[in-house]
Amino acid sequence: MYEKQWRAYRWLRNTVAVLFSTYFLSWGAYVALGGDVRRDRTAGFASVCWLLFAILAAILLSYWRCPRCRKPFHRTSMLNYEFFPRKCLHCGLEKFSH
Ligand SMILES: [Zn+2]
């Protein structure tokens, strides 16, 4: 019943995970290879863009709506937020259930 919505959720969740993990891994590799972001403007610009995309994807994920009740799945308010909820914080719909 909610396959399409859960597929979109998985894609967004995986995108957030890949963007953040590769951001820090690439920084480590860049520094290990002797890169200096203060001199390399292209690397600095790419880094800022990468981080902005990661933050934007995380914000979109935090506002992702439950397929059943259409309220944000991860939060009940600005202060009450769960990173890895097993069920909707509003209606209790289990993650990936139909
Ligand atoms: Zn719900």
Describe the overall structure.
The protein is mainly alpha-helical. The protein has one domain (1-98). Helices cover 53% and strands 0% of the residues. It contains two helices and no strands. Helix 1 runs antiparallel to helix 2. It is elongated and about 50 Å long. The N and C termini lie close together (5 Å). The mean pLDDT is 92. Bound molecules: zinc ion. Zinc ion is lined by residues 66, 68-69, 71, 88, 90-91, 93.
Number of helices in the DSSP assignment: 2
Radius of gyration: 17 Å
State the helical fraction.
Answer: 40-55%
Described by its quaternary structure, the protein is single chain
Mean pLDDT: 92
Describe this structure in a few short sentences:
It contains 2 helices and no strands.
Give me the secondary-structure topology:
Elements lengths: L2 H30 L8 H22 L36
Helix pairs in contact: 1-2
Top keywords for this entry?
98 residues, mainly alpha, 0% strand, binds zinc ion
